[in-house]
Design brief:
The complex is a heterotetramer, with 2 copies of chain A (247 residues) and 2 copies of chain B (277 residues).
Chain A (H helix, E strand, L loop, with lengths): L3 H14 L8 E4 L4 H12 L5 E4 L13 H9 L4 E4 L3 E3 L4 E2 L2 E2 L7 E2 L6 H7 L2 E6 L7 E2 L20 E7 L2 E6 L4 E7 L5 H7 L5 E8 L5 H15 L4 H8 L5
Chain B lengths: L5 E2 L1 H5 L7 E4 L8 H9 L5 E5 L5 H8 L3 E6 L11 H9 L4 E3 L2 H13 L3 E4 L6 H4 L5 E4 L8 E6 L5 E10 L4 E2 L4 H9 L2 E10 L13 E2 L6 E4 L17 H10 L3 H13 L1 H5 L2
């Protein structure tokens, strides 16, 4: 029986492997993103050739030019996939990492923009991920635009959000229309339950299936070799999701 | 070629003037926490703290101690320990003016100072509310493009003082920071660089081809003090890890002013804290 | 995460297409001379060679072999051995189109590519005939200055191929160049980076905090070949020095076309030269 | 008895110590400049606190960021003194490192501009040094301006040439007037001999003395500890000027 986290990992791994004009050869994942990191590892386990750079590993991180290197890599176009979230995400894929209220941050102040205002433009594929799926997160219009979901023509931009994965469903994003489309429902969700939990407008795919969960082989990989590879980087997550460590 | 002086920690802290613009590395990058504690003991005031590119534990201490009058940073977080408690309180009360940034813009501003140019361009950012909040940034049309191609220019940032922790210093004042090259950029960009180190080593680090790539040369270093375990409760490369229990305890206790004061008493002002330095 | 392939030297040379824009480090900075000899053997043609920031022995060989159709560089010299003989002859005959530069402009152009921006500013240069000869550079008024403040903008330069020699590679394809960080900048800026190394080492260079600061990560490395004494007659850090006698002999002999051909026969085409690689 | 090289070294050391609005704390010297390097060492021996960065030392050079660091240092204003020469120098202190003829380089092509077009602006004090003092070197107008001697107001520039030292004399430079002034004559030279060997116009100091040579203590330092310090960097020069190495 797969956990919710394992289902989300599998859903993101499916998105990584989905047909897309820009293939993923190199994905970068931040310290606070265990589910995306596991998803990249699962996509690799399934056969994709992807380099995974885990940021902020204390020992043995892949970068040798300090924290600047991640952003230089993205600027060079050498990072194909990045993950972003936000305290708010709106229907045009604008993301808010800074805070809510007017002025922004007065209601709730979050840590800040990090690299999002840059990475959303320079990395060709972004998967938005936010487990909480509620009207306070998925809003009609973000209180603060850390980075816009789409840009006017003539703006340097390598890509956009490919999809938004939440605890309830997967939305795909169409940058031409600047709109999300509900693509699949996680087990137990309905068109109606998602509609009620979503503060922004979106379209619905005609054929709306259940989000594909992890296979038995996926689960064995996640609980075995992938856990072993990521345990040092995400000890708390691994203990919580995969249970006590095998001796 | 007089080497930078080797001082006691409190004497190093005395070289940071009130009102200075002070650059601090992030929590995972040789952050000089002992020096920050010494600064709080000396009652430093009115600092403009720059997070390079983000801020964490050390900055939260300074905010809680009332030493910060402005903060420029791409984010403030204690990482796994959660939100930075004194930062969160200060933002809620509106008491702390903040200039928000984004990580690559902080690096770009320091690299412009490192190269001695007044600005550097940076992709992205266009159409964000971040850009709207930074009147000190400019947008021009890329002069090399035939077509309309707006691009952000970030002005050079030269902090008054860079505060960094290094693994070691030699007697010539060269310091070793390893792969944390952003610390070199801070030192290059800053007018004054004050360095705490785990230890002093013999020999010249720049004469050893294996060590030289991780060195910040003495000519950028204004003064050095030894501070063993000087990043605690943060970590130093592979020497020692972050003390996650201590950080979790801080994140919990410092949520209240009272708890923060108790933390300062125990870990900054207390005789045990002083004896440990 | 398939590592970059480990090839034979000639197979590495085969990856440099005719007509490519090729960046080469200077003589004192891990210059891949064995690879350049292999390129000459394969009869490479029509290269646009970029000196980073200056050119020396390896570029003179390529010029003499008729492999260079354009040269962009801040200077061409054999250092203590004097003028570069085939460069000097080519300039005299007018056969080699040259785009003159200045050292910091070469670094700036590569750093712009490294950061993914279309240009970077650079101080100085104004009022020089160098500026007059570079229509690809622009002068704008510093948008951050109240007063008139002209400043040069240099466009980003992304070479098709970077050719570098490194001390070692690990099996993951990370290569160690030590303090020669300009080699990292070349690799970051280039579309393809081909590396010769003195040797292959076990373990992961990025996992060793002492070695990591001198590493160019595998993700920038397209392919590797072992070339022992691969910089000869130039030197490699503290591993071996330049062979000054060999350089002096080259500078003398290559003054004539005949002498240069004899040098190639002995050191590039000769069976001894091949056997040595 | 001092050699010509030792006299030039002493003359440059005197210029380094001369009153100037910008004191020298850090001088950088290239591989091809043994006389300037020895001059900085002599100024230090006489008591000045100067850091000397010897560029392009194969082992143990002071830079840890590659060849870029020199130019970044200069850009930061952390190099106070640099030395430049040229195949031609004119009366407005314009320097030509590239070549002569029309087009430049067609008569004689030199290596190229190196960092001169940048360093001449960013370093506050430049001492021009060219041992050959002849009408073909000291010309009315250089065939190619690698870097101009003076710049229009409003141009970012930290300084100018302080002086020009040749094998015959010392000229000081006035950037306001954009003119050299003959300041001292090396032994054996006269106002007339310098005038005849100089292709550009210049002024003459009212009091025109002989260039001060090295003292006995200077010579002892040059032939002893300074030689020992620089022998590895300039082996050929040291052997030629100071004789066979003491065992």
């Amino acid at each position: 029986m797969a956990t919710q986290e394992e289902r989300l990992i599998a859903a993101i791994a499916d998105l990584i492997a989905a047909p897309h004009p820009h293939p993923v050869r190199h994905a970068a994942v931040g310290a606070a993103s265990p589910i995306p990191a596991h998803a990249v590892m699962l996509a690799r386990h399934r056969g994709a050739e992807i380099r995974l750079s885990l940021l902020q590993r204390r020992v043995g991180n892949p970068f040798t030019e300090g924290t600047r290197e991640l952003f230089d890599l993205a600027g060079q176009g050498r990072i194909d996939l990045f993950f972003l979230g936000g305290v708010q995400i709106d229907g045009a894929a604008n993301i808010n990492l800074l805070g809510t209220g007017d002025p922004p941050g007065s209601a709730a102040r979050l840590p800040g923009n990090f690299g999002a205002p840059f990475m959303y433009f320079t990395v060709p594929r972004t998967i938005l991920f936010r487990e909480e799926h509620s009207p306070r997160v998925l809003v009609p219009k973000v209180d603060y635009v850390s980075a816009p979901g789409v840009s006017p023509r003539g703006t340097f931009r390598r890509g956009h959000a490919q999809a938004l994965v939440t605890g309830r469903c997967v939305f795909t994003f169409d940058p031409e229309a600047a709109r999300f489309t509900l693509a699949s429902l996680h087990p137990g969700e309905t068109r109606q339950s998602v509609r009620e939990a979503t503060g922004f407008e979106y379209d619905e795919a005609a054929e709306l299936g259940e989000t594909r969960g992890p296979s038995a082989e996926d689960l064995a990989a996640l609980r075995g070799p992938i856990r072993a590879a990521l345990e040092d980087t995400y000890p708390n997550f691994c203990a919580r999701v995969f249970g006590a460590k095998a001796a | 070629m007089i080497p930078p002086p080797l001082l006691e920690l409190d004497a190093l802290a005395a070289r940071v003037p009130d009102g200075a613009t002070v650059a601090l590395p992030p929590d995972n990058s040789l952050c000089p926490v002992s020096l920050v504690r010494a600064l709080i003991r000396r009652g430093v005031r009115d600092l403009h703290v720059i997070g390079v590119p983000v801020s964490g534990f050390a900055t939260d201490l300074l905010i809680g101690a009332g030493a910060v009058s402005r903060l420029t940073t791409a984010a403030v977080t204690l990482g796994e320990a959660g939100f930075a408690p004194r930062f969160t309180v200060a933002m809620k009360s509106g008491a702390l003016p903040i200039t928000d940034a984004t990580c690559p813009a902080v690096h770009t501003a320091l690299q412009a100072a490192e190269k001695g140019v007044p600005f550097m361009p940076l992709r992205g950012i266009l159409g964000s509310d971040l850009l709207a909040s930074r009147p000190d940034w400019r947008v021009i049309d890329n002069p090399f493009s035939e077509e309309k191609d707006p691009i952000v220019l970030v002005p050079a940032l030269s902090p008054d003082v860079a505060l960094i922790h290094a693994v070691a210093a030699d007697r010539a004042g060269n310091v070793w920071v390893g792969r944390r090259r952003e610390l070199a950029t801070i030192a290059h960009a800053a007018k004054t660089t004050l360095v705490t180190v785990e230890r002093i080593v013999d020999g010249d680090l720049t004469e050893d081809e294996r060590m030289a790539p991780g060195v910040i040369g003495a000519l950028y270093v204004s003064a050095v003090a030894v501070a063993e375990r000087g990043a605690w409760p943060l970590g130093v490369l592979d020497l020692y890890g972050a003390d996650q229990k201590a950080l979790d305890a801080y994140a919990r206790e410092a949520k209240t002013e009272e708890g923060f004061r108790a933390w300062l008493s125990a870990h900054v002002y207390g005789p045990a804290a002083r004896a440990a330095e």
